[in-house]
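Quick one - inputs below.
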Amino acid sequence: MALHFELVTPSKLVRSEDVHMVVVPGAEGEFGVLEGHAPFMSTVRDGAVQVYKTEGATPETIEVRGGFAEVGDKGLTVLAEHVED
Amino acid sequence: MASLKELKDRIKSVKSTQKITKAKQMVAAAKLRKAQAAAESARPYAERLAGVMGSLAGKVNGDSAPLLLRGTGSNQRHLLVVVNTDKGLCGGLNANIVKEAKKQARKLIAEGKDVSFYLVGKKGRAPIKRDFANSIDRHYDTSDMRNPDFAEAEKIADDLVAKFEKGEFDIAHLVYPIFKSALAQDPTTVQILPVPTPDEIVESDAAVEYEPDEEEILEDLLPRYIKTQLFGALLEREASEQGASMTAMDNATRNAGELIDKLTIQYNRSRQAAITTELIEIIAGAEAL
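Output:
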């Protein structure tokens, strides 16, 4: 099983894929989200979101600014105002 | 009766007008596709944000709610944020938006409220100034923006929130066109400030953890929600403008074609009449010899 990860900005849906783990720079510290994480909501400070496609893989980093993360039944959704590819 | 030369010039001028309208129509059709795609790709963000708002707003209420949600407690001073286009040549679009804005303004004034305007886009200025010259609060110029841009929406939202926090108005409404099709763009009014509580409050039984806490998240989220709404309005405006422009220019091209046909018939008739007269004159002259 994998974690469904979505990264959305006002202008487009940047990512929508199944990954192993995502590390999000939360306002009160970084947190990693794996599949089956408890419902959780946090604001995100400016920084890099690290996406681990598979266990132990080198993470892909995406710079986000002004954001918000939500973990629900459907997986992790990160809403960001700006994303730097 | 116009002379042959006059008719010829007239046909030439209508033809060049037709070329312009046709070009504008094709440009609008191409831009419309882009604007529609942009409007569509902005939807997921707005939907998710609205969903989160729905689940949070139900949990935070009463006096602890942030000012943007709670409001100033009065509903005397209303601000109408009217989103118009910057360019013309788009049929009745701007006239319809202005009509809607004026209707809302009159309704509020009849209820004894104070109304002021915050105008986005150039084309709403003159017609609103005509009726409500003293209540225009600000013009926001979007004419150097080529495509709807989130940064632009951010600036407008920040400006509005700052005014709201200073207590310059109690309630803000957003008037903008909703793009339905190239033929129909409906001007609509929605309340943006204070942020209306969503109709459907999502009740989830799962215990959600919040970091920092609900109120702080909400405080962070509300300005973002307003920005998203303004951005959505700018995108809708862009799509509506191109759609209306395409339809209007299509009509104009067709009308020009009809006019050219009519003028060509008239031109041919006069030419024929001139030739006939000339022939009669020659024959009459020959007979007289």
